[in-house]
Specification:
Blueprint (H helix, E strand, L loop, with lengths): L1 E4 L6 H10 L4 E4 L23 E3 L5 E3 L1 H11 L12 H26 L5 H22 L11 H10 L13 H12 L1 H16 L1
Parallel strand pairs: 1-2
Antiparallel strand pairs: 1-3, 3-4
Helix pairs in contact: 1-2, 1-5, 1-7, 3-4, 3-5, 4-6
Bound molecules: glutathione (GSH).
């Protein structure tokens, strides 16, 4: 399985998942020109040219982070990256994946991190942030994971909370989230994933 990534983008969550479950994957860095090392345009894998995206040995391709993360979770031993299918916890995990993708990643960080957004979009995102961070903070107050045990939702949340400083999001105003992020960064799978991508980020 190939996983297409950009250092410290949301695709970091897929690397954390692979590390956590000790699965085999080849990580392919997507060049800024969006032409892959094998000469194909990245758009044949990911129509929006977004990371993360996945291509398995049978030629199946999949884009959209929450789908790729759920696919990886289903390759792992049961309970390692996601609650068992058809359980309430499984749907709770999907709820958080969707919340992170829409309300946090795209709803807050995207406008704050692109040079193309204007002041009005930035102000809007900063205005929406407290209610959304408060919800996450309440969920993680006194518990280590978004749902029961570690899941790909935690991996995704960690990947986006890593952007706070870059996006000037005052995470220190949410001590529960700040503490959770610090503890999560010490988790061996997370530490290994971040260590693998840090030199690539610094070289970019
Ligand atoms: N809807 C996509 C969005 C993924 C996304 O925004 N990826 C960013 C990195 S975090 C990206 O590839 N950006 C490249 C670009 O905007 O050209 C998903 O949920 O996977």
């Amino acid at each position: 399985m190939k996983l297409y990534f950009t250092p410290f983008a949301c695709s970091l969550a897929t690397r954390i998942a692979i590390e956590e479950a000790e699965l085999d994957a080849e990580f392919v860095l997507v060049p800024s020109g969006r032409i892959l090392p094998d000469g194909r345009p990245f758009a044949v894998i990911s129509p929006m040219e977004y990371v993360p995206a996945m291509e398995n040995s049978g030629g199946m391709v999949l884009s959209e982070g929450t789908a790729v993360l759920t696919y990886i979770a289903d390759l792992a031993a049961e309970g390692v990256l996601a609650p068992a299918p058809y359980t309430l916890e499984r749907y709770q995990m999907m709820r958080w994946l969707n919340f992170i993708a829409t309300e946090i990643h795209k709803g807050i960080f995207s406008p704050l991190m692109t040079r193309k957004s204007g002041e009005a979009a930035r102000e809007w995102a900063l205005g929406m942030m407290p209610k959304r961070f408060e919800l996450l903070s309440r969920q993680l107050d006194g518990q280590d994971y978004l749902v029961g045990s570690f899941s790909v939702a935690d991996a995704y949340l960690l990947a986006v909370l890593n952007w706070c400083e870059h996006a000037s999001v005052p995470i220190a105003d949410w001590p529960v989230l700040l503490g959770w992020r610090a503890r999560m960064r010490q988790r061996p799978s997370v530490a290994r994933a971040m260590a693998a991508e840090m030199p690539l980020l610094q070289a970019a």
